[in-house]
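quick one if you have a minute, typing this from the bus. below you get a single protein, a line of residues and a line of whole numbers that encode the local backbone shape. could you go over both lines and see whether the tokens make sense for that sequence. anything you notice is useful, everything is just below.
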Amino acid sequence: MSTARIRKIVMFMDETHREMGQAVSPPTRRAAAVAVIENPFASVFEQDLTPLMDIGEQMGDMLGKRCVELLGIAPADAQSYGKAAMVGENGELEHAAAILHPKLGKPLRAAVEKGAALVASSKKMGSPGQPLDIPLGHKEAAYVRSHFDGMEVQINDAPRANEIMVAVAVTDSGRPLPRVGGLTHEKAEGKDGLR
């Protein structure tokens, strides 16, 4: 199994107490954990991306647990999640896909206990200091509109040309003051990943 060569890990916490003059109680909270790792396939075309898939599994576990710890909650209290990756200029978009898709989801779901819904994801190429948006969706039911959200992260010196930023976000709530209707967190069943 391939192991990530990590240059740094950066944590972000977003806590909203007021919105449009209204109190948000309890505050909505989003946490993100970002690992800046070496891209083993920078400047090289490689057909077999298994090493990046293995790294994705490692990232899902580590970054998911870090988010839950930062929120200070039990894994079962996590409400939504998402993942994203940005490759530096000597990588390719498929490197981000290899990290995010085949294996990252299972350990992330374990870190937040369950997680029947698809883990929202995004991938892009970028340069140091470029923002990366991590999409968010309810962990049990994709139709919970109050949890359609996102979290932006940015690291001034990443990703360098031969690096990949791998990010996971977890929340303990939906958006502040949600009021667009639809299925609520309290009524989500989490059986089919939709409702």
